């Protein structure tokens, strides 16, 4: 049995609103996470989604501790440093698993989550990170609810991309030349030597 947390962070500001490029200066508006247990065959046994506003972060941190993997998309480069000012322990030292970096290791460049979701899951995000910041800044009840739903939807897409690789061993996306690419990946937990990872046109 494995314990996992899939998470996503939304911020209060955009990079254009701050000096420099440190995600820690953006301020975090909300964190959504999916906490679950999966069995040895990588089938989910139980799971539930939770969201935390800044005032609730003290209740959130224990959920991340003691799990086998903390899964995100661009989480090592963005979400984790964005949360650094709020954490009273070395959050970055926990077992993070960044899907975007796993794809980059094979394909050689960063691929947007939207591109993978569209071709792999036949799913498209309805709103953007820019709108998420706007929802926070607007601050009314309806906008904050839309922000929460946006963040939770990103978590579900991240989970489904991760699970697709666990089940099928590859992801699909179109590159900048609009060519469909198939990237073979192994997200299984270490047991024996994993099969060689490959990339090819699909």
Automatic annotation (TrEMBL):
A GO molecular function term, named singly, is: nucleic acid binding
Under the heading Pfam families, the entry gives: RNase_H_2
Q: Which residues form a coiled coil?
A: none
All copies of domain YprB ribonuclease H-like, residue ranges: 6-165
Show the InterPro entries listed in the entry: RNaseH-like_sf (IPR012337), RNaseH_sf (IPR036397), YprB_RNase_H-like_dom (IPR038720)
**What name goes with this protein?**
YprB ribonuclease H-like domain-containing protein
């Amino acid at each position: 049995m494995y314990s996992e947390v899939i998470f996503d962070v939304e911020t209060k500001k955009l990079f254009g609103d701050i000096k420099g490029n440190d995600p820690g200066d953006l301020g975090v508006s909300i964190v959504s996470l999916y906490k679950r247990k999966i069995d040895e065959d990588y089938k989910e046994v139980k799971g539930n989604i939770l969201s935390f506003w800044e005032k609730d972060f003290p209740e959130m941190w224990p959920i991340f501790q003691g799990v086998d993997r903390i899964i995100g998309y661009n989480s090592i480069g963005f979400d984790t440093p964005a949360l650094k000012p709020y954490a009273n322990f070395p959050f970055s030292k926990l077992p993070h698993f960044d899907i975007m970096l796993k794809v980059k290791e094979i394909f050689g460049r960063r691929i947007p989550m939207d591109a993978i979701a569209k071709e792999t899951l036949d799913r498209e995000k309805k709103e953007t990170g820019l709108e998420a910041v706007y929802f926070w800044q607007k601050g009314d009840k309806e906008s904050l609810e839309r922000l929460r739903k946006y963040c939770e939807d990103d978590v579900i897409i991240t989970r489904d991309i991760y699970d697709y690789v666990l089940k099928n061993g590859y992801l699909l996306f179109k590159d900048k030349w609009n060519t469909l690419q198939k990237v073979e990946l192994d997200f299984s937990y270490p047991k024996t030597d994993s099969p060689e990872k490959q990339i090819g046109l699909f």
